[in-house]
Fold this protein.
Amino acid sequence: MTSPRTLYDKIWDAHIVEEQQSGNSLIYIDRHIIHEVTSPQAFEGLRMAGRPLRRKETILAVPDHNVPTTEDRETRVDSIESKTQLDALERNCKEFDVDYIPMMDARQGIVHIVGPEQGFTLPGTTIVCGDSHTSTHGAFGALAFGIGTSEVEHVMATQTLILKRSKNLRINVDGDLGLGVTAKDLALAIIGNIGTAGGTGYVIEFTGSTFRNLSMEGRMTVCNMAIEAGARAGLIEPDQTTYDYVKGKPKAPKAAAFEMAVNYWNGLKSDPGAKYDKEVFIDATEIVPQVTWGTSPEDVLPITGVVPSAENISDPEKKASVERALEYMGLKPGEKLTDLIVDKVFIGSCTNGRIEDMRAVAEVAKGRKVADSVEALIVPGSGLVKLQAEQEGLDKIFIEAGFDWRQPGCSMCLAMNADKLLPHERCASTSNRNFEGRQGAKGRTHLVSPAMAAAAAITGHLTDIREL
Amino acid sequence: MDKFKSIRAVAAPLPMINIDTDMIIPQKHLKTIERSGLGQYAFSNIRYHDDGSERDDFILNQPAYRNAEILITGENFGCGSSREHAPWALKDLGLKCIISSSFADIFYGNCFKNGILPIKLPQEIIDDLMKDAQRGANAIFTVDLENLEITRPDGDVIKFEIDGFRQHCLINGLDDIGLTIEKDEKITAFEQQQKIQQPWLYE
């Protein structure tokens, strides 16, 4: 009898090609997603060494970081450098015969939204991408994590990675989320609880009724932010919700193969009595809508809170960090968070660019108007999300309310395209990082849920959605 | 890859916590299809004024630390994105060794692929090394990867630990892709086995 294992242990064990003397393992990689920013040097490496792709059919390529989100996107790439990367992706995919979704294809979108939509993301698989938010795919019970470009090349050439087993961290959340409290608030509250380095060295398994009751979209939002808690990967055990989502997707197994797969996937759960290296328990009913005030995702507070002070922090480095964040964000201790005036609102990204997010925004936007002082963008995470939203008539609600309804891409999440904040502009954003300069040099980001972002767009300031 | 055996160099103190990859290299400089030439952009948001001139308060701009090859810094260094542009930029800037109490996982792994040695030590020791590093041009440390030792400016020796395989690859400048390709038979055997258990992954 083997001892009880966690979900992570099971997926890991099922992918060991070889255990090495050093304590590392050679781990097989089932799925590889690539985009334009972190792949060119990997292809170049292969070319220089004369190495082929080991299994080209395990790769899916889609441009997302640099693509323009305006209607005239085909001719609007913001710089020669962006164009060079986009062209390089297309050229490399042609040369190496990789499945490539071009910018003007209806399926194009953010890698972490496209993978699941295409059924490329499957439970029990190992999935990598040269992008830290690859953790998103953990929502399917897949071991999914971001890698650097050298590792991208390693996977391309060998279909494996040399890895050390991570520790197991269980985050259990039970109970129902309150009115106006979403998966994003849950994710932010978890990061606030354990800190941005709380998950370093661990893979997080999210357990408990709160995650079981989340849709796949909500689960993806939570796993997406696992990296902001320092964990390379987040995991949620697959269940009927997962299977219902996967079924019928273009690249998902069909008919008898699907039944066989479900049978295998049903075994993807932690055994009773499995040991975790660390466990955290959170009561969902205590979580209220969250907002970040600083320049790290752990700088998070309930929307009912006030800007904190550095005064009582004894650790000099932590104190300096808070002082720096306050200055960067242009905030004074004691200010009410709901008093902060926003210039821009960004709704989208691999964290919150899915159909459920669009619906949540529409619910708030319906019959209301974006404040005159606010520029508000809604960027669907993929062409298919856009299509679905338009079929549901959401685009009309957005446009009528004064939101700018865009083409899919990473957009203002990371300012690698024309969508960015100007210096000192304050933004309520549904993205995942509030680092200095993340949304544009000197831009000020407040991370919130889609509903909270929409509410801020309407009122012109950070707003408690429960009071709108 | 460059070999890393032992270096003797100035260490610069950068006592900030949570230095993220956007701070190490802002995203606007990721639009390259090369690995080289990124050193000029390393830390650019804290290294330069808006007009492009250097900020005197940034440690690596100060004369004593211009040739620093070691960086001593606060916890959770390299958090954020997976961009390997971060170690590419640090390496191109001349940094070969980063010492901190903790690193983000992806960044930590990326360092080894680029001939940079990241060393994790307890916070108390980091505090001492940070003080040492404030001695300007006299903040000369030796980092010996073969013997896993740091020699402080006053001659004290501190031991550190590193994964044996990574140590081996770094000392010998080995490309681990080449090493893994030698395991081709085992990888193929794995695939044959997996194809039986999960045929849908091979359709």
About this structure: Chain A touches chain B through 77 residues (CB under 8 Å). The two ends of chain A are 56 Å apart (CA to CA).
